[in-house]
Amino acid sequence: WKKAFNHKVQQRVLDLQQRRMAQVRHQKEEEEKMNRRFPVDLLANEWFNENKLTVEARIYLLDKLLPTLIPGMEKLLREVESRDVLDAKEGTPSQFDPIHFLGQYLMRNNPQFDCGSQSSPYVRGLRQVLEKLKTEVLDIEENRLAKLKAEVKEKREQREHMQEIMAQVEETRKQALLHQFREWSPDTNGRIQLALIQSALRSFLQNDSPALALYDRELEPTDTLGQTVNSREFAEYVYSYVKSLHPEIFQEFLHHISQCSNAFLKAVRQDMWRQMFSDLFLACDHGQIGLLDRHRVLALLENFYDSNLEPVRATLCNPRQWPIIELDELDHTDFWVDFEDEERAATVTEDSDKPITPQDQSKAVSLTTKSLVTSGEVQPEASVTKKDVLVSEEKNRACNHQEVDGPEKARVYEPMLEIRIEETSTKHESAANEEERSVLGTVEEQQDGPVTTAVPKSEEDNPVLEDAAGEKLNRSYFIKKSTCYSSLWDQNFFSMITSIQQSLFLFLVKNPGQFLNDRPLGQAISFSLHNPPPPNAYSQIKTVKMLLCSSFPVVQESLSSILPTQSVWAAHVNIEFYITSSSIMSMPWTPHSIISHYPATPHERKKLKKKKKKGLKIGDLRSSGQGGRCSSTEDVMTQEEWSVAASRFTDLRSIISDIQSRGNSRLTSAFDGNSLNLPQFVQLLDTFVGEGASPSTVENLIEYLQSGYMETEEEKIERLTKACQAAIAAQHKLVLDALFETWDNDSAGFLELDEVETALLKYKEGMEKEILDKARERITSSHRYGTGGPGLTRKEFRSYIEWIVSELPGEKEEVFDNVVEFLTSSIKRSFTERARGSSRRKWLHKIRRAAETSGVNMDPVYKAVFQVLYKDAEAHGNNKKISCSIALLERNLQDPKRGDTCLRYTGCTAEDAPYLLNKVLYRDMKGVSFASIDEGKPVHVPRVRHHGNIHFWNPSRLEEDLKGSFLAVPLKDSQQRVYGILGVDTLREQVERNIFLMHEISFYQGVSEMFSIAYRHVQIRKNILRLVTSAMSWIHNRAPNITSASTYLMEPAVRKEAGYVLRKMMTTDNNTGVSEIHPSPITLRRADNIFRDYLFKCADNSKVITADAYGKRRIAVPLRDPSGRALGVIDVSTGCCRELPAHEFKDLQKMLKMLQAACHEMLQESSGQVEKTMVLEAEQFDEEKRVGILFQRFMLQDLRDCVQKLGLQSFAELKSYKDPPVMVHNILKAVLLLFNPEWAESEEIDSWNQCKLKVTSDLIRRVSCFDPTASSVRVHAELLAQYIKGIPRGAVWKHGSIPAEYLYNWAFLCYSLLEHKGGVQNESRSSSPSANPNPTLAKSEEK
Q: What PROSITE patterns does the record point to (predicted)?
């Protein structure tokens, strides 16, 4: 009834409200009609003025009296006029009383009772004046509503005005964005790709601008479907993000968009060039190996660089300098003293202003021909006479002085093909050979020049191969190309020759016993074609084809479409082709591996240039620098190779598939000093041409490299052999890993050697026992077994099996297959066991994945470990309730009497956190953890209640609740040293029998091993950041043009096909020298950061890259692991300075070289490959302090070596000064005070004559072995700073003194180490054992 009543009342109220609103609406309509019929009388405005003294009286009169009195007075006057009262004679009494009439009117028209009477225009005017007085003049409490209405009106007007302004601003900004759209060079349809816009928007937030830009809406995921937008859609899409930006920030945004458009246009041009470089790589890779000789490519680049004129060289990168060559390939003394750089730079600047003369062009062309011979890339044959060389030079000279019109005038390098076909034989020349000689003789008579014949130098240079008849054939293969002008003909002919070679390869591989129709090729073909070609030139090529087809009938059909037509003959070309059947037969190639590749013709290159008009695809930008699968032959396997490995061993197929799914996607290339794969070759040439090279220079470079790159047959065979061996090794590694996981079903991380040996003793019924004994002796003599290792680790198992296979008799691949199949069949697992092992391997992989994607944070690792333990206890431990903890070993500095070391609990489960987290377990306390540490083995306590040596951290736990078990598993590093404990207990389980089974204990050992791997991974990344911090602090103030540096570390991407992402871990401001490690590092994905693609190219190729990004010059430097693969990237920014001064550039090179050396040593030590090297005394404190000075130690060692090489005679320059510069004197003072700090108060230190007497061989010896961190060194850093810190780095460089340069850098480094030493000592005095700064809330306790 309440609901019905409320509804009824509510309906009644609504009806009344509607009626009232209708009355008000009707009244307003009537008033409007009245106003239209009778306008307001303007005389009423006389009552309005702003005099606040009389406003209240006027309001009263206008509100209470005048609206009734004025009509009454009008009525009275009309009545008086109608009765002629005013015209009556005086003294005549009147019956009309105006006072009574007015009173009657007022009484009858009382406003309280008469509201429906129509008002006169004057009265309506009075009411308007009354409202105006109340709202504008009167200031009383009742006027608030009027004020509010006025404010609302004012705000509405302001809002309308702002909307007009915003509309104008919106139109202005959209017009600016439309102008920006035109700078992007849209395609023929007037559209650009949406992903470009999204990447530009995203990069603006990541820019180093001090203004924080916040978009109006959240950024969308980067488009991957190739969606495009036109100009209107571009403006609307971008404006939806930036409409609320501050004008200054919006101007920065427009500038940023303009920079992105410029970068896009440059990327279009670079992508065209990179595509041409990719085609060049395929053309030079004659053997389809996927690798080119790096040293040969560098030599060709040096020759090309030297033979060009100075203006062209100014646009190229010097191939003898960094970053083309590696820092390790430079002499380390050049980093410190190479004062000629500035002189050379000045010379280049002067020469670049000189005009190019025809003599310079002729000189450049002649240098090209000489460089091919003198560089060692092309060796002149012994049979070529001096006359032939002179004739060749004369021809080149004639070509050089030819007048060429149009674009051909700028071309210097065009390939001239010189090919010879010859095969010599020592026996069995038949009549058929004579016929061939006659044919060849006819050809030779038609030549204009002499016939050249290549004679092998010796039998060692040309190894022999026996055919089926026992005949020995000389092996040689030589293609020589030099320089001259040519046109389309040489490209087509080279394609023809390439096809002929590949057809011969196919035939001889398929038919190794049949060649030359049972007769040796045995003759030489040599001919020359000149411009214009002789009439019989075309017939000579036919002769070549006839001879080849007669010798190889099988390939006749494949050669029928190769011969070019006469229309393409228009060039000056020398042709010599030399090939032998024996060299082809010796190649271990399979038919399917030989793929024909034809060099791109000029017409095809024109097609590539049209890409700029059509617009570049984002896919091209993303894939540039990758070039498909890297050809580095390491542990990278294609899907096809995975399938081959799985098909060979069907019983291991499921595990091989698991390994494949767990493995990271390898999209990066490892640096190899001897070879280049496709992406590395493309990046090398991209760095060489830079951004200032002209298109003609790039085309000349491509033609020069294509004509000049050659490899001998021996080199090709060697590369193929290495590639095959690497592929076989990768497959063996995969199969043995799968075999290891098959045996280690519980994922303990090791196998018992006795079990494996027992199984192998049954192989061939124990006939190979002697080999197994040797293998056991070999494996047990290793260092790890000497330290009490638990068994065979995965790596040791691979080494053990591979060594046994190498010792067993028979063909190695067959022996390997037999051994693997035997060991696979030796162990049988039930379906339940296999399912348990598969799930446990996946869980363990999650721990490693958590470390790899943690951003150097241990919290995800702790959480992953405890989640894995929970899942296993639930799935494979009868759903028991467990608690877990992790304790790390540390030095006991707080209370040394209780033991040298203690355990600090850094992670535990949530239930035990109040009792266990951050607590310390000492050796004099109860517990079995230290017993596990000392023995290096797990300790299992089945009944903790009856053990008597268990420490219970929770004092509130009742004694009857202590029914569980406890397991302590040691945590070991790569050298099998224990550094912590993993504890697992079942005290929360109420079941009486809740002990751990053997498969659970084995799995917990695997968890501890995986945690150690994850912990080591995170610590390595942290140490890398410490090394970078030390390196940047060293270069601070030495290179002021370096503005900042960002450190990125690589992590696996969420999607495996995406490869990896970059995490921005640290930013260093070189102006202040402060490095900031980001607690939540930004993630950079390749698809989202198109305009930061140089970072991904650097990581892909493990090569240094220089680029412009957002108007600033960048140098991206890879941090490599010992295998040459990139771990991260250091992005060094030089701001607007495109080229660093010579001394800053050298300091940067020194810093990067020493940083990479320190990283290599740290990585090798952490992996257990090498023992730790302690050079300085400060390195013995602890690992963190050692990493902090590791960079300075490498720099100090390098300086020691440089000073030792100088000798005493080099210091004679310093002694020759009578009155030295103050800078030199201060440097020597600082050096002397390091050895004799007591001289600081004496007068000897201020006397130059006394100081230079101290420069002896003993000083050099002391400098070479001085340790500034030693406890015996008493000098303070403040004393040294008085003399060394105020000396500008550039002034020492400009002084040009080698001894002064060395001593300055040495003293400055000692000063840095002394500062570090003082900081360490102060910290050790005031330090106490601190807990983990971010202890993870997880679970467990040592009970």
A: EF_HAND_2
